[in-house]
Amino acid sequence: MDNPDILTNSSPDGLPHHQLFRVPLYQQITNNIQTWIFSGGLKPGDRLPSERDMCDRFGVSRAVIREATRALAARGLVTIRPGSGSYVKRITVDDLTSSLSYFLHFTNSKEKDLLDVRELLEVRIAELAAERATLKDFEQMEAASEAMENAGDDINAYLMGDLAFHSALAKSAHSEVFEGLINSIVAFLFDVRLQGFLVGGPERGRVDHRKIYDAVIEKDPREARDAMREHLSHVREDMERSRDNLKADNESNPIE
Questions:
Q1: Cα 76–81–84 angle (5° rounding)?
Q2: Residue 55 C-beta-side C-alpha neighbours within 13 Å
Q3: Domains parsed from the chain with CATH numbers
Q4: Helix (H, G, I), strand (E, B) or coil at 80
Q5: Cβ(170)–Cβ(185) under 8 Å?
Q6: Which of 67, 40, 44 has the alpha carbon at shortest distance from 54?
Q7: What is the Cα 131 distance to its own chain's centre?
Q8: What does the angle CA 124 – CA 127 – CA 131 come to, to the nearest 5 degrees?
Q9: pLDDT tens, position by position, 73-114
Q10: CA 211 to CA 224: how far, in whole Å?
Q11: Which residues have CB under 8 Å from 151's CB, separation 6+?
C-alpha cells in the first residue's frame, strides 16, 4: 500500500526520479504553534487558545489540534492540564540537562569525546567563575571541596563531592547554558571520575580542586583556567592508564 505521506514526482517517461515527502497535517500545525511560541506570541505560562479557537485559526479539525498539542508536549514546549487546558512550559536549566543526558546515554557517547568537550567548556567556566562568583557561590564550592577532603576512602562520598564541586563551579559562571551542559556531561562520566579515584588516587583530585577553588576565590581568571586545564589533563591521564591496566589484565588472563 502506498504511503499517503509520500508523493512521487515522475519524469516525462513515467519513471519516478525522486520522492517528495508530505508533512502530516498535525505536524504542520505543531510547527506553526512552535513558531508562535518561539516568536514570543505565546509566552511561558500562557494558556494556549481553546481547541475551537485554534480550529478556526488553522482551519483544521479538533482531532488534528489535539494531536498537535500532544506533539508539543512531547517536545517539552507545553504542559497539558486535564480540565484546564494546555500551557506554554517554562524551560529551565534542568530541561537542558535532562535532554542532553538522554542524548548522551542513547548515543553511546565516547568518554574521550566528552573529555574533549569538557576541556573546551570547563576551562572557560573556571575563568568566568573567577570573574563572576558571588559569596554564595564560594560557600557552595567550599562545601563541595570539604566533602571531598572529608570523604577519606569512601568512594561514593568522594564522587558526590566531586560532582557537587563541578556543578557549583558551573553555576558560579552565571550562565544557564554552561551549567546545563556541564552538569549533564560530568554526571554522565561517572566511570571516568571513578577511575580518577582508583588510579590517580583521591589526594591528587583533592589538590586539583583546591587549586581551582583558590584561584576562583582570589578572582584570578588566568590561574583558574590553568588549574582547570591541569586537572582535566590528570583526568585524561587516569582514563588512559586505567585502559592500559585493563588491557594488560585481559592479555595476562585471557578468557577461554
A1: 135
A2: 8
A3: 6-88 (1.10.10.10), 94-252 (1.20.120.530)
A4: strand
A5: no
A6: 67
A7: 24
A8: 135
A9: 988 899 999 989 999 998 776 676 666 666 666 665 577 788
A10: 8
A11: 157, 158, 161, 202
